[in-house]
Design goal:
It is a single chain. With about 80 residues, this protein is mostly beta strands. The protein has a single domain, classed as 2Fe-2S iron-sulphur cluster binding domain, sarcosine oxidase, alpha subunit, N-terminal domain (Ubiquitin-like (UB roll), Roll). The protein has one helix and seven strands. Bound molecules: FE2/S2 (inorganic) cluster. FE2/S2 (inorganic) cluster (FES) binds next to loops.
């Protein structure tokens, strides 16, 4: 049985059911989620939705990757690549 996947920057990221997007990215070795408007690294930090450092465009909606459960076929785009 193959693991479900979502896409981040075109890369297939496998995840376990119930895993957050941020946790799955971290497990896949993705520690940089992009950069903010000041050029600071966006990353998985607090894990509880407090710091807003992990936000990304998820299926067209800005969401915290640490609070969003991964889903099959989901598309995750760094904010710097989201055009806004
Ligand atoms: S890691 Fe802090 S809000 Fe997601």
């Amino acid at each position: 049985m193959t693991a479900p996947i979502f896409r981040f920057k075109g890369r297939a990221i496998p995840f376990r059911p119930g895993e957050s997007v941020a946790a799955a990215l971290d497990a896949a070795g993705v520690t940089l989620l992009g950069h903010d408007a000041l050029g600071q690294a966006n990353r998985y930090f607090c894990g509880i939705g407090a710091c807003q450092n992990c936000v990304a465009l998820i299926d067209g909606v800005v969401r915290e990757t640490c609070l969003t459960l991964a889903a099959q076929g989901m598309v995750v785009v760094p904010m710097e690549d989201a055009g806004g």
